[in-house]
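Usage

Read records sequentially. Each one opens with the input sequence:
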Amino acid sequence: MESDVRSLSFTSSSATVTPRSRLQAIYYVHAASADLTFSNGSGGGTTLLELTAPSAIGTETVYVPGRGLLFGNGIHVTSSSTTNIPSVTLFYEG
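and closes with the structure output:
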């Protein structure tokens, strides 16, 4: 059963989407190099995706192919620096 695509925007160092979800796309603003880590369920969960922002100022859009990346226990995303990645928007189904 498919559901509608939803979005979540955040400016803090982490955010969680519960329950089971499929990550479809990510949009983020960056000022310098920093990492986004996507884990299954919590910060201590299995890491399913890591992204490194380029060192220059800009924006990035990442599309996940197919039906998206499945997070069986929900999506937990952590930014290594809210100064270097001040804004993140997730698009997900779940």
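Summary fields computed downstream for this record:
- The first strand starts at residue 5 and ends at 10.
- The chain has no helices and nine strands.
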